[in-house]
Amino acid sequence: MEAPIMSEYESTQDPQQGRSGGLFSFFSRKKNAPGLRSSIAALVQQAADESEEETADGEKPELDRQERALIANILRLRNISADDVMVPRPDIVAMSVSISLDDALAMMRRENHSRMPVYRDQLDDIVGMIHVKDLIAYVGTSEAFNLEALLRQPLMVAPQIPVLDLMLQMRQRQTHMALVIDEYGGIDGLVTIEDLIETIVGDISDEHDEPAATLIVERPDGSFDVDARCPVEEFERQIGPILTPSEKEAEIETIGGLVFRMAGHVPTRGEVLTHENGYVFRVLDADARHIRRVRLRKLPNAPEKPAGNGQNTAQE
Question: Domain CBS spans what residues (predicted)?
Fold first, then answer.
C-alpha cells in the first residue's frame, strides 16, 4: 500500500510543470486550505451573480454556467477519494495470465478496453496490467506468446487516497490505471484516468462507446423510460413541468441529477423514489457512480403545477 506523495511532489516541483503543477500544489496545501477554498468559492459565486446581472443587461457574462460548474468540481476534489470514483470489484473486467493471444484480443475487443488487469488464480492475485498495443505486437509473428513477459507493474493505492494524490501518482508512474486495495490486500476496485477526469468535466464518451439510446421512450402503459442524461428542459417539453422552485435554484440540468438529489446518493438498480410533484421514479440501470436510466410514471392525483417546497420522499 503506497503512501500519498503530495509532500514529496511539492518539494520537488519545478517551473516546467507549469499551470497544472501549480494547480495541484495549490489545492494540496493543508495550511489554511478550508479558508482558501471558502474564499475562492465566495469569489466564484460573486462572479456568477455579477454575470447574471450583466446577462440581464445584455452583456456577455465572464463566467457561464459550465465554467462555474468546472470550478466548483475542482474545489470539491480535495474531499473526493479513490473509493468515491472507482469501478467496484464486481464490475472489474480482468484476464487470466494463462489466456491465449487470440482470446486476449477478443476479450479486449468485446469489452472495449485498451488496458486490463491480469490475475494468476483469482482477482486478488493480480500479477500486472496489459495494454492492447503489447498484444497487437505479437499478431502475425511466429514468436511464442508469453503474456506474463508483457505485463506492466500495477499501481496499487488505498481507498482513502485523495484523487489529487492519485492523479499525481499516475502522472509520475506514467500509468492510466490504478488498483484500489483494501486493508487485507484484496482488490477493492479499479480507477482509470478517465474516471478522475470525469470528476471534473462529467461523463466522457469516446468512439468505442455504444450510441446513446433515445432519451425518452413512452411505454404502452403510459410510463416513460428516460435516459439519465436527458436534459430537464427536454423532459419538461415532452412530458410536462417537474422541477420545484428550489430545484430550479439548484440548477439541476438532467433527470439523473434530479434523481440523485431526491435520493441523496447514487441509487441502486430497482430503487424507487417519489417526487412531490407526483412522479414515481424507478432506477432501471445504475452502477456505483452513475445513474443511467430510469422509468417514471405520473400518479393519478399528481398536481397540475409543480409544488413549491422542493421536498422529495423515497420509498422501497
Answer: 86-145, 150-210
Last residue of a domain, one of 201, 234, 265: 201
The three state secondary structure string of the chain is CCCCCHHHHHHHCCHHHHHHHHHHHHHHCCCCHHHHHHHHHHHHHHHHHHHHHHHHCCCCCCCCHHHHHHHHHHHHHHHCEHHHHCEEHHHCCCEECCCCHHHHHHHHHHHCCCEEEEECCCCCCEEEEEEHHHHHCCCCCCCCCCHHHHCECCEEECCCCEHHHHHHHHHHHCCCEEEEECCCCCEEEEEEHHHHHHHHHCCCCCCCCCCCCCCEEECCCCCEEEECCCEHHHHHHHCCCCCCHHHHHCCCCEHHHHHHHHHCCCCCCCCEEECCCCEEEEEEEECCCCEEEEEEEECCCCCCCCCCCCCCEEEC
Low-confidence residues of the chain: pLDDT under 70: 1-65, 202-213, 288-289, 302-316
Q: Are residues 197 and 89 in the same domain?
A: yes
The CATH number of the domain holding residue 243 is 3.30.465.10
Range of the domain at 31: 6-79
The answer to whether position 209 is within a domain reads no
User: Which pTM was predicted?
Assistant: 0.52
What's residue 143's pLDDT? Answer: 85
Give the model's pLDDT for residue 88: 84
